[in-house]
Design goal:
Number of domains: 1
Order of helices and strands: HHEHEHEEHEEEHEE
Structural class: alpha/beta
Largest sheet: 7 strands, mixed
CATH class: Alpha Beta
Strand content: 25-35%
Number of strands: 9
Helix content: 25-40%
Shape: globular
Strand order of the largest sheet: 3-2-1-4-5-9-8
Number of helices: 6
Oligomer: single chain
CATH architecture: 3-Layer(aba) Sandwich
Distance between the termini: 29 Å
Radius of gyration: 16 Å
CATH superfamily: Vaccinia Virus protein VP39
Length: 208
Amino acid sequence: MTKNASGRTLDSYSKSAEKYEEKFFKYQPYKRQIEKFNDFIPEGSEILDIGCGPGINAGILSGFGHRVTGFDYCEKMVELAKKNCPSGNFSVNTVNNYSSSLKYDALCLSFIIVHLDNDAVNELFAKLVSFLKLPGFVYISFMTGKKPGYEKTSFSENELFFNYFRTEDIIRSFKKQRFIPVYNASEPYTESDGSITEDVFLFFRKDG
């Protein structure tokens, strides 16, 4: 999570962090995409996991020999990340406050923008280049197929804010900053109410 997520969403995640971890720890569609991202990035990469959640992706990437730094606005999620990826460096932080003298080979934004309004997403995208070595890579995932709003989920009895995006709009936003799309995949996802949305996974490269 990032700070731009509403307090209501933060509270819901704080109460459901362990259920979220349980649901997605071995969720194969997401695991496959992170493993695919490993094929694109250099060996022994320095990776920044923005909105790291319970450290599931960080643990996978660390297992491939990468060095992972991550942050999340939800303290409970950071506690779980430290457990799931002991070699990582995690903190409670926000994109606006995070600073580092280190530049990263790759950035991971796994279902982070889904909790942000459109203005906050644009602000986030504008900051990404400042974190990257060049050439550098970005992993981003999000959902498409519904209107934004508050929803209950299979892992939370309390509502969270979800935003939905069109794939072509996200690609266009990255191209404006001279990122090159290098991978595009999607997976159907069945919501707790039985409706089906689409999870989208995009990888980008930015050259020097």
